[in-house]
Amino acid sequence: MTSTHSHEKVTLENVEGADSDHGKAGGGGPISADDFGFSPEEQKRIKRQIDRRLVLTVGAMYCVSLMDRTNLGAANIAGMGVDLKLIGNRYSIISLVFFVTYIIFQPPSTVIVRKIGPRIHLAIITLLWGAVMVGMGFVKTWEEMAGMRVLLGFLEAGFFPSCVYLLSTWYTRYEVGKRNSVFYLVGCVASAFAGILAYGIMQMAGIAGLNGWRWIFIIEGIITMLLGIAGYWLLVDFPDARRKNWSFLGVREREWICARVDADRGDAKPQKFSLVKYLRAGKDWKAWAYAMIFFNTTTVTYALAYFMPIILQLNMGFSVGAAQCLVAPPYAFAGIIMWFTGWAGDKYRLRGPVIIFNNLLCIIGLPIMGWHTNAAVRYFGVFLVTAGANANVPAAMSYQANNIRGQWKRAFCSATFVSFGGIGGIAGSLVFRSEDAPHYQPGLYACIATTLLTMIIVGVLSLEFRRLNGKADRGERELECDADDTYEPGFRHTF
């Protein structure tokens, strides 16, 4: 299928909510990014400003998001398991119920954030889930904790897909890999030290008659609320938005951003929402393949997040304090791998091989972690698995973002992508069962299986991309129709 449509070059005059008193940079007519006259140094300065304001802010907020949803492991070995009588599968239940509402309420989030703007949407839900975290410090039964986790999942549901969508609107396809890596790296590495933070907070046991695990929720909840308040002033809107949170960028710089994105993939111009157009993206099987990659990835990352302190204590024989603190080094190593693979993926314009490399680290590390006789060597395996699995989160985000176009297809795919990640969270909270302690071999087999499945899916997608790109090169078809049934003639899939 081919099309002779040539998409409209984007300025703030022809996007919704543009400042009507500003003309086009060139004084009339459609313009491209080259028409603005910014020197390479000025372009770098603009992108650095966006990086500082956008990537670091959402990274810091994602840090508390990860801490708040995964601090159950630290709280459990700090006394929560005893106080709330978490016998049998109760710990797994309060881990997984979070993901029920987390999954259900993700699809509408990318529509809501486009309508009301990221500043309001992200700041409010962050403030509210921080309040829920404080409340978790005062529960009396495990059923109450499960109920609070359900509410936490509802509030956190809109955060990650909105961030993924927001980042993709600001950067071109071969800039987004490093930014996704930094976004996730800031959250992942900083939250890795949550174990050390939790161990320090535990020492507050007895203050106000509260056990140490309760103070973990209370203190971390207060931190989240403060960051949610700060986020209202620090966050930015979409580059084409009418809202006036633009003190760090001028109108001409915004026009340049929109023109760059439009030249890269032809979808910078906002499209009027239509449920039919939004859901039409579900007809593309590749959208579900990207989502399945993220399911496989998060199955491993959440399994590590929820059970690593427990495994370090029960399987490897470390004390409670040591288990809390030894969580941090593997995540620090994961941050290094994450940054390197994000940089390499952008530089060489590769996505699939980066995912394969990360999965190879997991395939090597999982048997070492599970079956070696020496605890120190098993801990080395934890490094490899943690690095490979967590580095694949931004890698999978970039893989998906590079191979779709169109505002509402991007919104739909961001929602389904992250929803499948939430389903992976359910799987990850169940794979390491208490009855399998201390070796947890069924859970290890499950992680190996999901890792291998990701490698197979990437292989199938690579073959399909090669076939489709070949047809486009021969003029037999155009790629990636957007919600308005238009095509970007120069678009090609990224392997």
TrEMBL record:
Major facilitator superfamily (MFS) profile domain residues:
54-466
> Basic and acidic residues compositional bias: what residue ranges?
1-11
Please classify the protein's predominant subcellular localization into one broad category.
Answer: membrane
Which Pfam families would you find in this protein's record?
Answer: MFS_1
* Classification via Gene3D superfamilies: MFS general substrate transporter like domains
Keywords linked to the UniProt accession: Membrane, Transmembrane, Transmembrane helix, Transport
Question: Does the entry feature the keyword Transmembrane helix, yes or no?
Answer: yes
Q: Name one GO cellular component term.
A: membrane
InterPro entries according to UniProt:
MFS (IPR011701), MFS_dom (IPR020846), MFS_trans_sf (IPR036259)
* Membrane topology listed for this record: Multi-pass membrane protein
Q: Which PROSITE patterns match?
A: MFS
Keyword field contains Transport: yes
GO MF term (any one): transmembrane transporter activity
List the SUPFAM superfamilies.
MFS general substrate transporter
What residues form the membrane-spanning segments? Answer: 54-72, 92-113, 120-139, 151-170, 182-201, 213-235, 287-312, 318-340, 352-371, 377-399, 411-431, 443-463
Region annotated Disordered, chain positions = 1-37
The source's domain of life comes to: Eukaryota
Subcellular localization, as worded in the UniProt entry: Membrane
Give the protein's recorded name.
General substrate transporter
Q: Which organism is it from?
A: Parathielavia appendiculata
